[in-house]
Amino acid sequence: MMRELHTRFGRDNLGFLWIIGEPILFCTGVAIVWSLIRPLHEHGLPTTAIVITGYVPLTMWRHSVARSVLAFEANGSLLFHRQVIPLDIILARIILEVIGTLWAGLIVGGGAVILGFMNPPENYGLLLLGLSYQIAFCFGCALVIAPLSERSELVEKSLGVLMYLSLPASGAFIMVDWIPEHYRWILLLSPSVESIEMIRAGQFGYIAHAHYNFFYATWINFFIIFVGISLTLRAKKYIHIQ
Hints:
The chain has helices spanning about 1-10, 20-35, 45-70, 70-75, 85-115, 125-150, 155-165, 185, 190-205, 215-235, and strands at about 40, 45. By secondary structure, it is mostly helical. The chain has one domain.
């Protein structure tokens, strides 16, 4: 993790603080723009809080997936050490992204609470549980994408487009309760939607009318992580060290 910080941010200027600074800039910018162009409340919920509770977990996912692409090739020299395996590389990158995004969300959300744009969470336990499920989802996606990007150039090149196309299914800017009932099951297939619904239920309480299923969220994230670990443990023979 220390090596990753040094190679990515260096020691000049803010250095390691950019691991928090980057998500802060993203989250703050999006929250300000949405608060200016949208009504103060949508479906009875404050717009600023909707954006922050959606964009923070979305940023965590996007950054985690982006940092997993060709992660083994970029750190391939470490694999000459017998103690280091591909799983260590992914763990180091995802832990850093998660820590940075969580701190950014805490700072941006805390600032919004102090300025009166949102209230403190109604249920901290449920909010933290939702964040835990989102972290598991980010970890699973990274474990899947990292080895696949080593095997196929198509995965590497098309991932950016696929991530943008998947935004409507992320649950970041809408809630399941806002769409017609007979279409909700489609959105609830997304693990990210399950996580963000829990986060918003923790933030807003019962007025959010959140939809989530603990059983589904648990087994789908477990399945993704299981597949990702299986692919990662077999990735070493596909890694090309420059």
